[in-house]
Amino acid sequence: MAATAPPQRSRRDLRGFIELLDSRGALRRISAPVDPDLELAAIADRVLAAGGPGLLFENVTGSSMPVAVNLLGTQERVLWSLDMERPEELEALGERLALLQQPRPPKGAREAVRFGSVLLDVLRARPDLDLTPPCRQEVFKGEAVNLDALPLLRPWPGDGGRIITLGLVITKDPETGTPNVGVYRLQQQSINTMTVHWLSVRGGARHLRKAAAMGKKLEIAIAIGVHPLLVMAAATPIPVQLSEWLFAGLYAGEGVRLARCKTVNLEVPSHSEVVLEGTITPGEELADGPFGDHMGFYGSVEDSPLVRIQCVTQRRNPIYFTTFSGRPPKEDAMLAIALNRIYTPILRQQIPEIVDFFLPMEGLSYKLAVIAIDKAYPGQARRAALAFWSALPQFTYTKFVVVVDKAINIRDPRQVIWAISAQVDPQRDLFVLENTPFDMLDFASERLGLGGRLAVDATTKIGPEKRHPWGEPLGRSEELEARIDSRWVELGLADIGTRDPDPALFGYTLEYVLERLAGQT
Fold it and tell me: Is the peptide bond before 290 cis (omega within 30 degrees of 0)?
């Protein structure tokens, strides 16, 4: 899609990003009435699967609020949220974050200047306080709280209720006062209560355990309708010793403007469309779920902490920002593709032989990783796979790691399949780790929470890895390739090879296969 020249930078709130999409022809406004129960998500799902625009539903049954969805439904729009145009710019951001993650003394003047530039970024990224925040233009307390007024979605027929999916969930460490900002699913339980679903390793869960040990309630705020880059920053589990808001400021290139909540000692982005304020009493839980998840199945019902909402603040005429999970493609998968690029420099700093890595969306964005290495010695592929599994917390649940030579384009499945087919002997090149901690949502595991991992060495074998001569790879001289290039127009072939071919030409009909499998269940 040809893009018109947009403003240099969108205003740093949800409305500014919506205006940016509109100016680029990447937004569709829908005025026809749409039901948030099943119908809205089904419409958005079809549009997303077709690579379509962001959607703003202006007439949502049961609520006066418009609903924005699919705003981050393409990699291009994820880049726009960060004021970027090319995926390579994400790696430049990752390089700057890598310097902060593992700082080391500069080796020369050039590195000193670079590190100094990053420190200046940190200073610019410090949050500041907004004394007249838009998010407090309307306030509802006590009996005036009514969660039914929000256009919460129920995306799938078997879902247990209405949910919030893109709210920033904010808590503080009861001992240190350090805030945590995460993106967790919340299910509405009544007109003023919700359950929050978070893993035990997440910051909010740690804060709740500390509050329980101290005999205190845990204060919580949910900020809905923030600029998408804040969602992206909150969803990034990179182990940098920075406050969540400072990290978000590094993403934005400027400090996040915060506002104090009305009834709890927490701060939220001042431009939030809606803010829910409440408390969690340790031990008070209700059944949460089931819900359709990113694995493509319904998750189980779990007892989850109960949030009692005591205050709602909002902008005038607020916009509700949401998404939903399910088998890719989905918006969370698009975010993962962008985060993949940001992780790459951080991985290279920890594992120098890694040239590139890719988490394919069809591999659920973290279940399968393809790594390209600059191979120099026998056994290096196995070492790289083991190092990858322990490099960052989010790679703990990666089931499959395929290691290929640096000459392979890891984003081209045809090249990866060739490397596996041509360079792997299963009895030599498969490496299995058994009974490792695993994702509770992975129903393929023999035992939930415990599973195996597989590394595939699809690199060219060297030294003692081989017992016979390795084949000479096919290739043509650079002189011949250059001569063909110079004659391409003369040969009448100028219109061929200017864009990537349709994968269906080579037998790739993935969606058709997935639909057939779904029909058999």
Answer: yes
